[in-house]
Design a protein that fits this description.
With about 700 residues, the protein is an alpha+beta fold. The protein folds into 2 domains: about 15-255, Beta-galactosidase, Chain A, domain 5; about 280-655, Glycosyltransferase. About 30% of the residues lie in helices and about 25% in strands. The chain contains 16 helices and 36 strands. The strands form 10 sheets. It has a 9-stranded antiparallel beta sheet. Strands 2-3-4-5-13 form a 5-stranded antiparallel beta sheet, with no helix packed on it. Helix 5 crosses helix 15, helix 8 runs antiparallel to helix 9 and helix 13 (about 575-585) runs parallel beside helix 15. The longest helix is centred in the middle third of the chain and has 21 residues, at about 245-265. The radius of gyration is 26 Å and the shape is globular. The protein starts with about 20 loop residues before the first strand and ends with a strand. About 55% of the residues are buried. This is Glycogen debranching protein. It comes from Jiangella asiatica. InterPro entries: 6-hairpin_glycosidase_sf, 6hp_glycosidase-like_sf.
Length: about 700
């Protein structure tokens, strides 16, 4: 990050989120950066110009790579030279030195357009005139569908009709089975350039060097997608007249978006508090958490849910919103965009959440297998909506044929009963219903049974809001029974928990999900000895300097998988922030604070990935734990939407904010002095009242 803003400075800008330079070459374990403009997304390829996963639902190429660079007739990666990647919310910058040339590129998605631009600048480092040929290998699998997108990759067509528009020197691909077109071309921005287009190839011939010709020349690759040829060519012509202007507009767009997050202007129905601090760790983690939710907003007029928030980008499960990941960001959804949040929750209430892991936004269809976390996800998300909005009338709102919102929420809280075993806990089934890659984390798992205690207690709080005091008492008594049964799963003296199997046997599982979930939800219900043992286990077997191991490397299931989101070699997006919150709620805030300094170094790769590696297993990148790549066997996308957990860590962990369903806000900021005694949150909105939070607590404030 650049120099931190003082408290009097204005809103953050895109350069405040600039990543560290990430230097890589072909063959590296690397997940290249990605972009969105809310209409769709793309990913840079490990190349100076190449892009992939350019998709704007319902129009898509899936993961097809295009615009791969040939330098003077030779495929660029074959030179073996490293490329430096830098991400900002508005752009990806790439640079390298190769064959006596300095090459740089800036990639953007054009605001408001289904289009990408890559500006490429070539500088001659030699002392003589030089001719350079840039060849871009272009491909297309454009297609469109309005049907449910239920697979890992978007719909695409591999047999496009291909031709060249000779007048424009552009390459046009037309889908044969749907109404979809892609136009790709190269235009000169400055300098002496000749361009050409042929099947599968765009070419720019540059004349560089001293002696009357410029030593530096810029060209632009433009890629436009849409429903028809005429429309795509019109957009292409508009962008091609001023490709540099598209880069400028992208920067302005994202600067405006970052301001809108804190003002309530623009596209959001709420706002987040502005963090004023001179501390780089706090600022980096807070802004990364915010952008890591913003970046998943999708605006699709064809969709049943518009706007919506995707879960992964840019490669997998586009148009899909997973209940689990959404719930981990629910504090941000509740504060920043409560109206789409309410619609999303009502949509899930109309869906049988015991039959799916997600729904997709275009058709609203449920997808995938049942995730056992879904009841917890619904209660957690609804609680955030209710406590920040104060919309208690929503509880009486009827949703589909399933009764009122309260009926649905009470049903989720009591759903554990249908899975109840003689041991008094819920059996949540097999591998696919839980962590997918930890074979021992099955059946009666501690984390989700702890969540049942939370669900029942939260339902009791809601029951009191609607005036059902006796019902609240019944729910709290049920929560107490579940808690008593849960205690039987603790591995005495060790700090971790058992999973109980149908035959009654108990298998120890040294997993961060139990630590984080039980510590953050039930920290006050644990004995002092248990809290100390859990913390010692965490520090010895899970914590790393800049990230986390989801599963202890001492666990016998470590041999089962190398998928780093939940296994021994790394951890998922939100597990470090959830674990840090558990440390705070178990009375060890100093451990969390010291660790957060290292975690902030991992945030220097842009938004957190779906998983990062333990930096002692795979070398660090940019000073922090390296993002895991999309490819098999790691299968980890560049970013995941659960970043709101990091915002929660700052608001509720560092600043100690609490807000109940009645709208009572208080704060015990025990950690603020460890970072910046002058730090404060300005404009925290709860049920129509604004608060400023500082080291002295929560104070009502007025907005200018």
């Amino acid at each position: 990050m650049t120099t931190a803003h003082a408290a009097t400075d204005a809103f953050p800008r895109v350069d405040d989120l600039r990543s560290a330079p990430l230097r890589h070459r072909h063959g590296d374990v690397f997940n290249p950066p990605a972009l969105t403009n809310y209409l769709g997304c793309l990913q840079a390829d490990l190349d100076l110009t190449g892009i992939r996963s350019l998709n704007f639902a319902p129009y898509a190429h899936a993961d097809t790579v295009t615009a791969s660079l040939y330098l003077d007739g030779r495929y660029l990666p074959s030179y073996g030279e490293p490329i430096t990647f830098t991400w900002r919310p508005d752009r990806v910058e790439r640079s390298m030195t190769c064959s006596g040339l300095r090459l740089t590129s800036t990639t953007v998605l054009v605001p408001g357009r289904m289009a990408a631009v890559v500006l490429v600048t070539v500088e001659n480092l030699g002392g003589a005139d030089r001719s350079v040929e840039l060849g871009l290998a272009v491909r297309s699998t454009i297609g469109a569908t309005h049907e449910a997108l239920t697979g890992w990759l978007p719909y695409h067509e591999g047999d496009n009709a291909l031709d060249v528009d000779a007048a424009r020197r552009v390459w046009v691909a037309t889908a044969r089975h749907s109404a979809a077109v892609a136009v790709q071309g190269v235009v000169a921005v400055d300098g002496r350039v000749e361009t050409d287009a042929a099947p599968g190839r765009l070419t720019a011939r540059l004349t560089l060097g001293p002696g009357g010709h410029p030593a530096r020349t810029t060209v632009a690759y433009v890629h436009v997608m849409g429903a028809d040829r005429a429309g795509c060519l019109a957009v292409y012509d508009d962008i091609a007249r001023d490709p540099s202007g598209a880069v400028t507009r992208a920067e302005r767009f994202w600067d405006d978006e970052l301001a809108a997050v804190f003002t309530g202007g623009g596209r959001y129905t709420g706002r987040l508090p502005l963090l004023e601090t001179s501390d780089d760790t706090l600022r980096r983690l807070y802004l990364t958490g915010i952008v890591g939710v913003m970046y998943f907003r999708r605006e699709r007029p064809v969709a049943v849910l518009d706007p919506s928030y995707d879960t992964l980008m840019p490669r997998y499960w586009q148009t899909s919103t997973f209940l689990w990941d959404f719930s981990l960001s629910s504090i941000v959804h509740g504060l920043l965009d409560p109206e789409p949040m309410r619609r999303q929750l009502e949509h899930w209430m109309r869906t049988d959440v015991h039959t799916c892991m997600a729904t997709e936004s275009v058709t609203g269809a449920p997808i995938g297998m049942w995730y056992a976390v879904n009841d917890f996800a619904m209660i957690r998300s609804a609680r955030e909506y209710l406590r920040w909005s104060g919309d208690h009338r929503w509880l009486r709102h009827r949703v589909g044929d399933g009764g009122t919102v309260w009926d649905h929420l009470a049903g989720y809280a009591r759903a554990w009963r249908q899975f109840k075993t003689p041991g008094g806990l819920a059996d949540y089934g097999a591998l696919g219903n839980l962590l997918e890659c930890v074979s021992s984390y099955v059946h009666e798992v501690a984390g989700l049974n702890a969540a049942n205690v939370f669900n029942l207690r939260t339902a009791a709080d809601i029951a009191e809001v609607i005036g059902d005091g006796s019902g609240a008492g019944v729910l709290r008594a049920e929560a107490a029974d579940v808690l008593a049964s849960l205690r039987e799963l603790y591995v005495e003296g060790e700090g971790y928990w058992y999973a109980r199997h149908p035959d009654g046997s108990k298998r120890p599982v040294r997993h961060c999900y139990d630590f984080a979930t039980i510590g953050s939800l039930l920290g006050g219900d644990l004995s002092a000895e248990q809290r100390a043992q859990m913390t010692a286990f965490f520090q010895a077997e899970l914590q790393t300097p800049t990230w986390l191991r989801a599963l202890s490397s001492r666990d016998e299931d470590a041999v089962f998988s190398v998928r780093p989101d939940h296994q021994w070699n790394g951890a998922y997006t939100a597990w470090p922030s959830e674990a840090a919150m558990a440390l705070i709620r178990m009375g060890r805030p100093e451990v969390a604070a010291e660790w957060m300094t290292g975690l902030a170094r991992t945030a220097r790769q842009g938004p957190f990935g779906q998983a990062h590696f333990d930096e002692r297993v795979i070398d660090a990148d940019g000073g922090g734990a390296r993002k895991a790549p999309c490819e098999v066997p790691y299968i980890s996308d560049w970013a995941c939407s659960s970043h709101g957990s990091w915002v929660s860590l700052v608001l509720e962990g560092v600043f100690g904010v609490t807000a109940d369903l009645a709208g009572t806000v208080s704060a015990r900021p025990e950690l603020v002095d460890r970072f910046d005694p002058q730090a404060r949150l300005v404009g925290l909105a709860c049920q129509g009242v604004d608060y400023t939070i500082d080291r002295g607590g929560a104070h009502r404030s007025s907005r200018a």
